[in-house]
Amino acid sequence: MALQNLDRRIIYILIFLAVSIPLIKPIGLKMHISENVKKVYSLVQETPENSRVLFSFDYDPASMPELHPMAISAFRQALLKKQKIVCTAMWPMGVQMYEDVVKKMKVEFPNIKYGVDYINLGYKAGGIVTMQAMESDINKVFPTDFSGKALSDFPIMNNVSSLKNFKYVLSFSAGAPGIKEWVMIAHDQAKIKVAGGVTAVSAPSILPYVNDQHQLVGLLGGMAAAAQFESLNHFKGTATKGMDAQSLAHLVIIIFILMGNLNYILLKKKKERGNK
Amino acid sequence: MKRNIPLLITFIAGFIIIISEFIPHYPFGSVKSGLEGWFLIISSFAIILGNLNLIKVNILKIKFKSQNWKYSYVTLISFTIMLLAGVFWGTQTKSGILGSGSGIIAQIGDKPFDYLYNNVYQHLSATMFSLLSFYIASAAYRAFIGRTVEAKLLVFSAIIVMLGNTSLGFLITSGLPHSLDFLQLPNISEYIMKYPNTAGQRAIMIGAGLGIIGSSLRIILGIERSYLGGE
Amino acid sequence: MKKLFFVILCLSSLFLFAEDFSFSVKDNPNDNGSNLILQWTKPADFNGRISIKRTDDSGTVNISDLAKNYKLDYNLHPDKSYLYSFEAFSKDGKIMFDKKVEFKPVDNWFNAKKLPFLIILLLISGAIVYYIYSAKSGKELYIRKISGLESMDEAVGRATELGKPILFVPGINDIDDMQTIAGLTILGQLAQKSAEYGADLIVPVSKSMVLSTAREIVKESYLKAGHPDDYKEDSVFYLTDDQFGFVAGIDGIIVREKPAANFFLGAFYAESLILAETGFSSGAIQTAGTAMPSQLPFFVAACDYTLIGEELFAASAYLSRDPQQLGSLKGQDFGKALLAFILLTGVILEMLNIHFLKNLLIIK
């Protein structure tokens, strides 16, 4: 009876404790690296030096815990591989996400130069329509960078006029417009490689795009994948720390599911006995 | 007349978009991108409409002292502060009408808009999202009951996937010999996600795709008019 | 004699099989005349560099990224003629080969690569149109029961009884998403019922374009129900474009106003469970519908009724019982059968190592 009427606040308190305790005192559990994460890692790793690559920040602070660590690790990996990173955002708040990533990168790589090693094209409304226009002519969609300077003034944009000039697109996507739209335009139309990261909640619906046609080269789904990606990059970021919390939270949820079922079985038996 | 003109526009625009998918020749390709450009322009201007509506609704609530009218003050004040901070001192690398606000940056470390964004907005937004973890637990407790055979299977696979996605799953089965690698929880979880889950997702996507074709045709042919407000 | 014959044979084979320089330009088929394919060959032992320049009336441009033996030159105009100069230089900078080719891209009238899709589209659309017109001629059509839509009367009745409002959320995507339009068509029917029963309707939206459409729909529905004076313009209002700001706003409405019935019909992302669980805790009857596969489990867990994928799009036809609209659903069923047939055939052919169908349906 007590189980049946379990106050949801008790569930909330237990979840709160399961999340907060490992964050304060990490346990350091080991993890298994999934195939999809390895594929994203290899894509960045195997792209030659000086290649132009496109990073699209299609998320906002709400999904930062899951997507930001992915963006940081990928940006770091691309810089280590000396790739030239062109950044854009299909979400208005994505620009701030980019700023934060760059701020962190400048501490580790003080010599990177804006306009040479990386550039920010900024946000443009329109989602898939903007991407489509980028496929035919980037300069028409983004005549200037985020600060208003002509793109032709930056060496990184030399010979870049279309999506086709990029070796790959990485989209960190919390919804639409995001990775799905990049698959439709960058892969299906411009025929370039697309990969990226999504929240754990939306991963199941994006996974079908990792297929034989390689619509997506690989996919980072949720914090678990972000932590695995960090581990491949030999980098201990917030996702690695968050994994312990997530593991315990999952465990608590599993316990609640089992309790709910136990409660159901007990009630059913009681009912059967009553009928007899 | 009021109905026929929008119906005609819908028919022409819809038809052009469909055939331009198969006809690359000028003007079809460019008409499509032109129409998409129009949508962009209209939706950009519509943002003003939305914001005006937000202001109007909240002013009216205060004026007529409607239920919970005090909350409207919070909305209007927050809206005005963020708007003015952006207009006066700009955001990030862009300056506002009063310049870049270097004096304020020296005081608070950021432009006012960015300061509010980083210290207020980001946390509020992340708080809303993190409610999800609490709600998932309570919804799972309530709804994830193995009443039928199918539901039991669902509960069982859900537990495997959840464990497989965490370090715990790896820990539980890490003692298995190399030849039984396929029985490792993360591998079983990946298998469930890759095959049965993908198959189900695709079935829903195909059904939805056909639904979209059907609805689009009804709209293009003018049979479905409720989006215009009915007959 | 034998030796001489052998030497001649060796020399001639060397001459026959040694690859020399060549350069050609051809049209990229099936496009709008904005691309040309440049192809070249070079001897296997060539270790110099090659250069390709494109000249038109606006000047000369160097073509970069020539690591492979072909290059797609894009952003061209079909009405212009382009002169390509191919030059191969030895390691010490001497020209070993040069060739000039002038070419005009062709603006094609049909993308032949998409022919299989056109056929499938025509078959499905043809079936839909056929069933629409056969329904028009009075043929009786069966449609299975969709409980989520049957519940609408119950929800409106309950709201009227309790004197509480009905909350309708048409998703968080813009009007260019078919799910939003499907949600709005249901809003029309719901608004009409609310007007008839005299129940209050609250419609918060997250996109300005949806605001104007939703308003027009609700207004027309009140007019149709014969209660134009009961229509309140501010019952449909804009909250914010921001995903979680929008959720916070709606959660606030649910907690304060305690609607008797909640309808979440449209495109939803991570906010689905936050909305549905708050609605559940307020004790409202909840109906949700979306074509977002990843959000459906959340709605199923927390709502009383859920419209799954295609059911959302079928709602308008189901509610209006208009034979023409019902006919289109029958056409969709034909599409489903056709796709199931293609899928099964494809699986069998692939198992037999025959890749014809797969290659036919992949646009390279």
Helix segment tally of chain B: 8
Instruction: Tell me about the largest β-sheet of chain B.
Output: none
Strand content of chain A: 5-15%
Our Rg estimate of chain A from Cα atoms comes to 22 Å
Biggest interface: chains and residue counts? B-C, 65 and 88 residues
Total strands of chain A:
6
Percentage of residues in helical conformation of chain B? over 70%
CATH architecture of chain A: 3-Layer(aba) Sandwich
Which structural category fits the helices and strands of chain B? mainly alpha
CATH class of chain A: Alpha Beta
Q: Mind summarizing the main beta sheet of chain A?
A: 6 strands, parallel
Topology of chain A as a string of helices (H) and strands (E): HHEHEHEHHEHEHEHH
Q: What is the strand arrangement across the widest sheet of chain A?
A: 3-2-1-4-5-6
What class, by secondary structure content of chain A? Answer: alpha/beta
Count of separate structural domains of chain A = 1
Mean pLDDT of chain B: 87
Note the overall shape of chain A: elongated
Based on CA inertia axes, which overall geometry of chain B fits? Answer: extended
* Oligomer type: heterotrimer
What are the key terms here?
heterotrimer, A: 276 residues, Rossmann fold, six-stranded parallel sheet, 10 helices, 49% helix, elongated, C: 364 residues, alpha/beta, Immunoglobulin-like, four-stranded antiparallel sheet
